[in-house]
Design goal:
Bound molecules: flavin-adenine dinucleotide
Low-confidence stretches: none
Number of helices: 5
Number of strands: 10
Order of helices and strands: HEHEEEEEEEEHEHH
CATH topology of the largest domain: Cholesterol Oxidase, domain 2
Strand content: 15-25%
CATH class of the largest domain: Alpha Beta
Helix content: 10-25%
Structural class: alpha+beta
Radius of gyration: 21 Å
CATH architecture of the largest domain: 2-Layer Sandwich
Shape: elongated
Largest sheet: 5 strands, antiparallel
Strand order of the largest sheet: 5-6-7-4-10
């Protein structure tokens, strides 16, 4: 459907969502589903940057390597993901940090964020923008993972192996713990991996069932990032393709058609 941001907007403006939210905008309630717009997740990102000694050529995709890492070895799966960007990504202005003309950024993300955000309507009309309250870093585990992620970057980027390539670190630089927390809060941006705002499940906050059907509404399915009960550890595009393929199978089957797909050979 319309992605994890616009799907809840379309649903709520059509009368499907939390009744108090709908009523506050004068939208007649078609189906009370309190989970619409809740459970927002994203791989929150913050970049650590080094200045190159001289301009370096950017390879095929600009991101030739990813790292998945655990902030604590006892975790069952990685909670940190890093994309190695072969160019310097500007930190948000709030950090007050200069971006080198030529450089390299380790783009950190929280692979398994614990914080949950919320989407709200600003009005009942199609041109009324959705309000995003990501609530990022509200859970202490997320800040702990973010601190570990920055520490890992700094250990790698400042190691001897990179010294022929770089003149030095430009973000975040040497800081004490509270300075590092300040850097993380000011530099945090979306990874554009928003998910889970109309989740699949069986509890009262679920929006779709295991066939992607919206509870209480005949003939409506959702097939996009919003149905993920929780965000994937890795990038979100390929899982969304799988959701779309699954939706095609389910819809085909409900119309007595058998699925005939070309295999997906590569995903970006
Ligand atoms: C800048 C950027 C970079 C990204 N890079 C990567 C990456 O490198 N790797 C990766 O795995 N993921 C990446 N992602 C994330 C990935 O694109 C998404 O997770 C994925 O596309 C989500 O799929 P979806 O089907 O939920 O939504 P989408 O792919 O966004 O599809 C939603 C569709 O709904 C349409 N739509 C929206 N609103 C309405 C409406 N009101 N009415 C009708 N149609 C509507 C949109 O035009 C769009 O065609 C990136 C995202 C962005 C924004």
């Amino acid at each position: 459907m319309a992605r994890a941001i616009n799907t809840p907007k379309v649903l709520m403006q059509s009368g499907i969502g939390p009744e108090d939210e709908l009523q506050s905008h004068g939208i007649p309630v078609v189906q009370h589903l309190p989970g619409v717009g809740r459970n927002h997740q994203d791989h929150l990102a913050f970049g650590c940057t080094w200045a190159y000694r001289k301009p370096e050529a950017v390879g095929g995709s600009g991101c030739e390597a990813n790292i998945y890492w655990k902030s604590d070895a006892r975790l069952s799966q990685p909670d940190i993901l890093q994309c190695q960007l072969e160019f310097a990504v500007p930190s948000p202005p709030e950090t007050g940090l200069e971006t080198p003309e030529h450089g390299w950024t380790m783009f950190n993300g929280l692979a398994q964020p614990k914080s949950r955000g919320r989407l709200r309507l600003s009005g009942p009309n199609v041109n009324d923008p959705i309000l995003i309250e990501p609530n990022s870093l509200s859970e202490p585990e997320d800040m702990a993972a973010a601190l570990a992620a920055v520490e890992l970057c700094r250990e790698l980027g400042n190691s001897n192996g990179f010294s022929p390539l770089v003149t030095g670190e430009t973000a975040p630089g040497v800081r004490d713990r509270s300075g590092m927390i300040d850097f993380i809060r000011r530099s945090a941006v979306t990874y554009w991996h928003q998910t889970s705002t109309a989740k699949m499940g069986r509890d009262t906050m679920s929006v779709v069932d295991n066939e992607l059907k919206v509870y209480g509404i005949e003939g409506l399915r959702i097939a996009d990032a919003s149905i993920m009960p929780r965000i994937t550890t890795g990038n979100t595009m390929a899982p969304c393709v799988v959701i779309g393929e699954r939706a095609a199978d389910l819809i085909g089957k409900s119309h007595g058609l058998s699925a005939q797909h070309e295999p997906v050979s590569s995903v970006g």
